[in-house]
Amino acid sequence: MFSHRHVILPQPVKFCRNQVIHGGVMTSYRFSRRRPWSRKSTCFAVCGSVKQAIAKKEETLSQLREQYEKAVKRADHLEDLLEQQRKQLLGKK
Description:
Oligomer: single chain
Order of helices and strands: HHH
Shape: elongated
Structural class: mainly alpha
Radius of gyration: 30 Å
Strand content: under 5%
Low-confidence stretches: 1-7
């Protein structure tokens, strides 16, 4: 839909993108040089985020394992019912 605009103005888009990326890097670099404690707090924040992500992953895996076990039990039960029904139908003939 807007692809024609991107084609017409590729240089300004690249320039803006680079300014945003490098400007953000430079700003964070300047900020971290002014406040050395912020690097440590940033590391703790990242560590906390990683721990939360790992806990969420473990919880999701646990739920998926439970769902899998329930599905396997259900499939086994349905196979048993199907086999029982097949035997009943063959026995009537």
